[in-house]
Hints:
hydrolase activity, hydrolyzing O-glycosyl compounds; 237 residues; Intradiol_dOase_core; CBM5/12; mainly beta; 14 strands; carbohydrate binding; binds fe (ii) ion; Protocatechuate 3,4-Dioxygenase, subunit A
Amino acid sequence: MPALARQTAETGGPLTPTPYCDDGDDPTIPQTEGPYFKPNSPQRTVLPGAGTPLTVSGYVFGLACQPLANVLLDFWQADNSGAYDNITYNFRGHQYTNAQGAFKLTTIVPGLYPGRTRHLHVKAQAPGRPILTTQLYFPGEPRNNTDTIFDPRLLMTVRTVGTGREATFDFVLNVPGVPPTDPPTSPPPGGGTWQVGVTYQAGDRVTYGGAAYRCLQGHQAQAGWEPPNVPALWQRA
Ligand SMILES: [Fe+2]
């Protein structure tokens, strides 16, 4: 089973974009040209209906493993008996990733239909970027080996919880970026011992900008809380 992108990211290498995958049975109306992606499905994270409960959660990352917020994820799937609702919007819904790039879909395990293994459809689009149309798959499905569209890179991690299933999947979109880094720490002008990130106790003494200070109140130093700026925390000594 492929590792989640969040695990691959720990090795420090660039991420591989989630592959494109489309079986052509997407009945959604083609998007008109325009500045905004306007999906036809309702905005919702819960797709109600009878069947085995399923949640799919995860993150959307760019190529440098930066979390992507406000990514549109448009899911659609077959119902419990393997049928798509092409009249109304049953088992269709779109949502947006949050500030951490996270999403969660609450639905049911899609039913099987002839010629295909079990799958979820999804379109993913970061703001101002091309749409990725792809599918997600379930491990251990007998038809995975005979489905010509199946791609093991699109396998979700699935566990059984009670009578339901909890799946996770991380998308990687073709969005360049720089890896998240810790905020830079600026050395104090003129040197000094005060440092961002250090936890100071009342009574500690530092130097900053050529002056000495005594800590009045325990705290963790942050950028912007340089001793001359926060008389509640530091007193000239
Ligand atoms: Fe399908």
